[in-house]
User: What shape does this take?
Amino acid sequence: MLESHACADRLRPRWQALLPCLAIVALAACHPHGAEQDAGQNERGLAKLNPTPRQAHELVLKIADAPGPFAVVEGSAQYDVINEQECGRIVPATGRAGRITSRESVQLQKVGDNEFRGTVYLDLMQDEDYYDRGVCQWKFSGAGVLLKATGADAETRFLSFIEADRFVKGDTESQHYAHLGYPRDAMDNYADYGEDAPEGFKPELRGSLFSVTLVSPQPPSH
Assistant: This one.
């Protein structure tokens, strides 16, 4: 779904700034406006998908040492317009265009006890002139996953994301999570982004961790 908004969330790493879009969590600093308001419920809005995408990459998710099963395993691909100032709707309060982004679902199929696979298209979004200001140019920003134990509202949302440049090169992105957050944390609906390495946890927790790994195993040949 297409979203257009202005965010002043500069203190967070870029991939963590994108993850709330994957988890469908609204940021307090973001005020939706623009293209998505032109759509009714369950409609795409002004954004259109490329009818013949060709740049396919496999997304592989591997889970290791989890304390239990995950009934909810959702994949997403993030796309952003890279020239919003030239093509986006101007926000009267700022005189500038807001960020235009779209989160598209990636269907993940279970291929093993702890492995899922799906297909991400880098060219899924169709460039178009939405506001009579010029053609908006879309670019793939990365892929992510959301895991929940059973899907209950209060459960922890385990989130992981791999940025576009690492994804297309075939790099591996692994995040580590504490068992104690499964199936739910002390805070309801907690968003757990994990840590890059076990050393990010207190020593007493390092023996009770699980990992989520994302990779595109077959980068394109040059």
Summary: The longest helix spans residues 14-23. Residues 2-215 form one domain. The radius of gyration is 18 Å. The chain has one domain: 2-215.
